[in-house]
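User: I've been going back and forth on whether these two constructs are worth ordering. Before I decide, could you fold them both?

Assistant: Sure. I'll take them in the order you sent them. The first construct and its structure tokens:
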Amino acid sequence: MKYFSTRGADTLLTFEEAVLTGLAPNGGLYIPQTIPNLPENWQEDWKLYSFNELSHAILSLYISPSEISSEDLRALIDRSYSGFRHPDVTPTKKVERKDGKDVWVLELWHGPTFAFKDVALQLLGNLFEFFLKRKNKRLEKSKGSALTEVEKEKITVVGATSGDTGSAAIYGLRGKENVSIFILHPKDRVSPIQEAQMTTITDANVHNVAVKGTFDDCQDIVKALFSDTAFNATHKLGAVNSINWARILAQTVYYFLSYFYVIRATPQTPSMRHHSAPQFVVPTGNFGDVLAGYYAKKMGLPMTQLGIGTNENDILARFWKTGRYEKVASVGEGATGATDPVMGSSDGQQATTGVKATHSPAMDILVSSNFERLLWYLAFDATPKEGADDAKRTKDACSMVDAWMGNMKSNGKVTLPVEILEFARKDFVADRISDEETLETIKSYYSECTIAYIVDPHTAVGLAAASHFHQKPRTYTTQHHQQIVLSTAHPAKFSEAVTLALSGDATFNFERDVMPNELKGLLEKERKVIDVEKPDVELVKKVIEGVAEETRVKSGSSSEVAALGSF
């Protein structure tokens, strides 16, 4: 299996190269040459597999044993998920409602930072370390003696976060040999718990950068760094955002695990067998989590249309409605000025970029960075099949995506052909959920379930979208199928939003009902953070270069950023 960029397939990379490179030099995202089919007897052979066993089986379809042996892959997987708090890693739970409208919830927040991104980033951190150790062993063997620190292959991981990616990446990479990590987050625009989870990690290789701006500003800076050939070559940048292919691949596993669980738990009457393909509903902003489901579907996992739930920053919902992928203010055409901060998402005012601060801040984005991968598959499906081989169609699809993303960069929008939109509607449905409905959904699942079920605001977006898809048969086509909603974060991570929703219920007590012991006292711990006063790529370069110089001088001393202060 080789990998190529969505914007040009001339260069083919190994899995290792794709993982260590992250973003392609031409700005595209790496995708596999082919999506493998599942083994002939996969449903029978895999039906009782654990998460780790499924992960090994699925990842083996994408990773050649000549790159990572079966034994090494199994060890990497076991190490990655040994710290999860639930034996199933990502358990599926049936939530029973008093009105009979039960729903399955796939709980993805049992990892070290209580967020779904732990599933991918624990594995990615171990992959980085594995590849670098192997490279350095080969260099050492070639040299015939031990490598100096300067001679060792190292990587500088750079990422942007709207909340959970940062802490999950930091926990996945803290203390890893030959890895430095820089996480950019929008200053005062992530929840207090999320910020504390990042900035209280004081390992010498971890560097938090607070940028005065929005998440999109941070993400643009990261993309600019990767596109800077000279800077990238000097610091050997690596990506942890969902642009890294390994993250998408790791997340496909829990779709299979949940599918098998629901099938085992459901009486297989003739009627149920007819509707055995569930609908997965995913709250998403950057499109990575739901894209993993798309790959699972294309591999052969039975499911209906994937359901997308967005908040009021609704670029995805608007695309599926209109076919226009455009960076416009979700609060309406011509919206200007700052919006008020929202409980649980911001301590300061929203920047004037069209992003609206919502109760589900991890989805407060203007552009979905992983959407480009789906666009490539839609473009490929739309290329003429007559008289063209796959190589020609692949090249044409890359050219189409390159042109679309060029328009997006220069004009902030692109209108896709009707044919492309129809292809997209075959596999997805999407809806927009307001802040008001988000809070009402949190209330509903606390008070209207047979056993109170407390959800975070992002999961609430998914649950509300699932209800829309189920109740509107003329609009959506999946109302008779069981629904599995992906729960992306523990409610304790969004204390203000959850408390705001449930403050009127005298039976609710946040500390007693929600807060896990692991997060208690976190807000009072010492912080380590570098402030950047405006969203400027040159200022962030100075931060990285400054830390690199301090590291060379002090050989990884934990005081290496003490003199950096702010930029």
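The second construct, handled the same way:
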Amino acid sequence: MRLLSGLFYAAVAVHAKTVVQNWEITYVTTNRGLNMDAKRGVGVNGKFPLPVVEAELGDTLVLNVRNSLDTPTSLHSHGIFQKSTNYYDGVHMVTECGIAPGSNFTYEIPLEQSGTYWIHGHTSEQNYDGLQTPLIIYDPNDPYPADCEYLFAFEDWSPKTAEEIYPLLTEPNPPFRLFDYPPNALINGLNANLTGPIAFEAGKTYRIRLVSMSSFPLFEFTIDDHELQIIEVDGVLTKPYTTNVVRLASAERVSVLVTAKNSTALNYQYHVTMFGDFLPEIAGIFPSTYNGSVVYNSDSPYYVAESIATGFLDELAIESLDNEPLLPVDHSLYLNATSGFMEDGSTFESFNQITYKSPLVPSLLSALTTGDMAYNPITYGPDTNALVVNLDEVIELLLWSPTNLPHPIHLHGHVFQIVEKGFTNDTTGQYRNRVPEGNAPLKRDTLFIPGEEYAIVRFRANNFGCHIIHCHISSHFMMGLNMLFVVAPDLIQKNVQVPDAVLEQCRLQGIPVSGNAATNNGFNFDAAPNEPFLLDNDPLTDLASDSPTDSP
């Protein structure tokens, strides 16, 4: 496993610095060392895995990017709020136009948060094809010191590219399900079957950072006969919470402290399991468990466990370290995360039956250039499903997953408190679980909602800008499970000065940099993407059922 370097330079005098990464984003044809055919991936500097980015609180991260693809690209620093730098959030046609093919662009990101994050492509689901890597930001004054750190970054690598699967997923009567092409697992960018040992010294404390960069399977991590003490979730410090297993959905991150035993008489194993009870089992392929060694003494025998720990985290029992109480609500919103059909029978995902379609002008530029109309949600296009809120308003979201499909929901620019969880078919409230009275609710930026369940979350809209909320299962995001929050348009107009380099990327691609979603002013939205509400039932199936049939 990757031994992180942060411990060693955190012990010396600390000065804010510039951390520079020079990335040429390229196609790389590879099977990532897996027993499968090679496919075209999206890598950096002609190779995989991408370099892990490490920095300290207060540094500035500079990502110098050369786009050597034949299509636009962009980079999102997942979990970084981008306060006052919303134009570097990396979301194609929301905060920027993307980086044009054959051009250069630089992201300059002040690192005002510490914790465990990741960087990934946010154009055409290029992260599905490998454009992703962990981002670790150390705090020299971290309240949870450790003697050493290890990083486990989990990925799944599928035999088809995002470009290949999208039309197959959305066309009428799809000829396949996504899992007809099952993935293999990668740990720290390498074949998970080759996962290496980690070394423990008796009595020492280890921080293990767990990052899920998965496109849709779940991952679990456990160490035989060792407790895992959770201290960080999605970059937010928590009060210590003891468990024996950590389950991660796509985009979730957790740090745990593990105290080594005082004896070196035994060695142990850690286990990484890729699975998903919402996915079909495939004998010998899925689910799959990968085992590595925890070595105290190379001459010692191994502890023999009766079973491998598994289970959900009780997120309602974990408290944030900052003791922030449950927020009072200003506005409540119901978001039904569900699939539906177009008139031609094609399938899409949606919030509230509105499948997301990008506007013709990036939403941030619309907010900056439309004056008072920036407060009207229609300015951003009917298919962005936009909600405009004032600064510091507290928004409560009821996230509803009525089908058997799960959704790891990610909110850009903020973290939300987890308030309540339950089942969508529970009409009595018997299985309703709510954060205990007086607890400081857990805050995170991504929350996994299993199929046929719901969650209630709250967040304070304290970051003016344009921020999307979306499902982080790659296929669901591609299929439209996304919507837009616009926070404080007046403050965007007063405070945001978009660098000319951002606007130049729009000009290179012929994308307008002002006006509403249709590139116009006022209420002229004729050219804006405007798909009808999704239908609950497949119209092709309905037509077939209405057709006359021969008598037996």
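Notes on the second construct follow. The helical segments are 6-10, 162-170, 363-369, 474-478, 489-495, 500-508, 539-546. The CA atoms of residues 168 and 174 lie 6 Å apart.
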